Predict the 3D structure of the following.
Amino acid sequence: ALALGDVAQQLGTGTYVANAVSGNIPPVLLAPTVFLVSAFIAFSVGSSWGTFAIMIPIAIPVALTLGLPVPLMLGAAISGAIFGDHASPISDTTVLASMASASDHIEHVRTQLPYALLAAGIAAIGFLIVGMML
């Protein structure tokens, strides 16, 4: 994960994405977009740390280039990654939790998902509201 983050940083992925979204995506939608992209990546790979390595080197240059608060973009990237990791059926923490409780793994994922989705929805709306206040 760290190697992938280093490669993304050396390629200038953050600068490229910042230039690509500048003028194409309204700034009000950038924090919710970073949150949702981070959540999708973490859910897909089952790793919040891997998602941090991918998204943080992108979120910071986007924030700096577009004049957005860096803590807002970092918060969106980190919270999206944590949600995706928590909700992912292939995450090590999800597998460990179902094994430790001796419950069916898919049933565990199914029972956790409504709570995780509720929190993610509230977070996405919160990022949207903060984006509107900028």
